[in-house]
Amino acid sequence: MDTLALSRLQFAVTAMFHFLFVPLTLGLGWLTAWFETRYAFTGDEGYLKMARFWGKLFLINFALGVVTGITLEFQIGMNWAEYSRYVGDIFGAPLAIEATVAFFMESVFIGVWIFGWDRLSKKAHAGAMWIVAFATNMSALWILLANGWMQRPVGYVLRNGRAEMVDFWALVTNPYGWLEFFHTVFAGWVIAGFFVMGVSAWHLLRRNQEDLFKKSFGAGAVFALASSLLVAGVGDLSGVNTARNQPAKFAAMESVWETRTAAPMALLTVPRLSGEGNAVEAIKIPYLLSLLAFHDPHAEVKGLNDVAPQDRPPVLPVFLSFRAMVGLGMLFILLSGLGVIVWRKDLFARYPLFLKIMFFAIPLPYVAIQLGWLVTELGRQPWAVYGLMRTADAVSKTVTPGQVWLSLGGFVLFYTALGAVDVWLLAKYARKGMEA
Q: Model pTM?
């Protein structure tokens, strides 16, 4: 493997591992703040126990997310020096705001929340967690606005072989970045909802603190259902956005090779990897693909045969990842909807199998969100900055394959240890249950 392939593999490993921790943080902070707010306004000690329990798991996850996120920024400068030189004037601005504003805010108020239990009023202490939850989501906003610029460059000029920012407001209002933000954040909320439901289901099966964990399960179910529906809605808008701005990615997502108007959608299909031959398709619904792509049943959908071969993304992984992600999203709506019904009618004792399913379903939203990023990033290839800079031109010229192999091995070992510690700590404190 050459330096380019190894650098891509290393960044994929570190980014995907980092994103095992970020999504839970995005959602669990809101739920913790909600539980503590209920305590602050009602005085119900049960909600205090819930806030402290879920808040402790939030802190464990947050700490691991911070550690694993730092290495990504180092890699951009070390393995992708040409990319940094080319877009540093633009890419650095949102990342600087994320570090100096959002991350600073969440770090400060996490400290306030940890050490302020006996020093602040109930409402002020709950307010600290609301600020933490807001700041974690704003941190994601600035990072995703930076990624959105890579997907759809705006507000720049090319000067002296570099992309230089001329309109910061265009970057801030870039629709691609905002759609990525909402899609990612809502998916993180789904993870938090399923995490809370799964852990609560484990305790309910063992009849531990049933009243408290029933309330936790209900909050997680409502949160997961609302978030799953929001993900579906934003996903539809994201599909339209992709079809308009990255038609090659959209064609790979659906394995569309021939450009046509009023394009049908095949619900069951085996994609072909080139323009030769025919895909195996069944159950084709007329006009549906054009309708999904542009909200117009007669719109033209561009096929991969009209894209230069060197500009096509890898079709099979993008196609399969997209299909699996959508299928899991539909499953989350079903499971969280059933969870709301079981909670509202207090059917926990009647359906222990459902509780077992919800416990084992905890990893599924993590899988779905990783698949979503595979679609986003693989579908953009071969571009590091869409239409401006190829990934092959972004890699550092002075880094050798041996150096990347060495650092990749170190990251894998280090991250494996961190992952084991995180799972062990989460499992340990999740099993303990809430304070007596």
A: 0.92
